[in-house]
Design goal:
Blueprint: E1 3-6, H1 12-25, H2 34-37, H3 42-49, E2 55-61, E3 64-73, E4 78-86, H4 95-109, E5 114-119, H5 124-132, E6 136-144, E7 151-158
Helix pairs in contact: 1-3
Domain N-acetyltransferase: 2-160
Keywords: Acyltransferase, Transferase
EC number: 2.3.-.-
Length: 160
């Protein structure tokens, strides 16, 4: 298991490192593109981490960044799980479950009764991870992807 570190605006270099690694390793798994963030300066990264009420967490394994996840307020009594990624060398170590559990705990403490996420269609390993952690597919349509046709799949977990 890894060590989880809550990331603040001042930790933007660590968040940048992990986010760019995620977008490089698994571009198919994210709506965002490396080109959108690769040239982003300090101001862009700090702004990403400054969203009021958000929770950003990085997993460290043997002192090195090995994963990330983000929780954001979703409106009403819902929170959203976003930006989940684990480095290839740390996959299978339980870090993904640890990151999801941390965001779930944050959501509960924030008063959320449901935790939602959106996953790119066809990302079987991510869907299996989320199902293993108690998320179920919703009929709700997700955001339109850059191809202008495909929509994200929405999943949710009750926190009551």
């Amino acid at each position: 298991m890894g060590t989880l570190v809550t990331v603040t605006e001042d930790d933007w270099p660590l968040w940048r490192e992990v986010r760019l690694a995620a977008l490089t390793d698994a571009p198919h798994a994210f709506k965002a593109r490396l080109a959108d963030w690769h040239t982003g300066g300090e101001e862009q990264w700090r702004a990403r981490l400054a969203l009021p009420g958000a929770y950003n967490v990085v997993a460290l394994l043997d002192g090195r960044a090995a994963g990330m996840a983000r929780g954001v307020p979703g409106g009403g009594r819902a929170s959203e799980l976003r930006s989940v990624w684990v480095s290839p060398e740390a996959r299978g170590s339980g870090i993904a479950d640890q990151l999801i559990a941390a965001v779930e705990a944050w959501a509960r403490q924030s008063g959320a009764t449901v935790l939602k996420l959106a996953v790119i269609p066809g990302n079987g390993p991510a869907i299996a991870l989320y199902q293993r952690n108690g998320f179920v597919a919703m009929e709700e349509l997700g955001d339109l992807l850059p191809d202008g046709v495909t929509r994200e799949h929405v999943m949710a977990k009750r926190l009551c």
